[in-house]
Specification:
About 70% of the residues lie in helices and about 0% in strands. By secondary structure, the protein is mostly helical. The model is unreliable at about 105-110 (pLDDT under 50).
Length: about 110
């Protein structure tokens, strides 16, 4: 049996929270969801999964759309997202990551 792919960035709590959210919210036939599941399952590193043509072609437009959506959010919502991301980076514990995945935040973030 081969060792699953592990890369430093893909193991960071914030990256894993984002990947888990993508995997949970995208259909099985969605390239971005497939990308996220491949990394989370250890089937590929972030770099290897992104290099796959199907994944790579979908990541650019998805990233552009995410940035556009973020820019259009009111400042208080962007600030709440940044606070949640910082908590995940700082603590990385399962409860905070699960909050990010479920879309729930603390009262402080809402």
């Amino acid at each position: 049996m081969t060792e699953p792919y592990r890369d430093e960035v893909g193991q960071q709590p914030l990256a894993r929270a984002v990947l888990a959210k993508l995997a949970a919210t995208r259909n099985a036939d969605d390239a971005v969801g497939s990308f996220a599941r491949a990394v989370l399952n250890g089937d590929a590193s972030l770099r290897t999964a992104a290099a796959h043509s199907w994944h790579g072609q979908a990541l650019g437009p998805a990233f552009d759309q995410a940035l556009k959506t973020l820019r259009e959010l009111p400042a208080d919502e962007r600030d709440a997202i940044e606070r949640q991301a910082q908590r995940i980076r700082d603590h990385g514990d399962a409860d905070i990551v699960n909050e990010a995945i479920s879309g729930n935040g603390t009262e402080e973030d809402q």
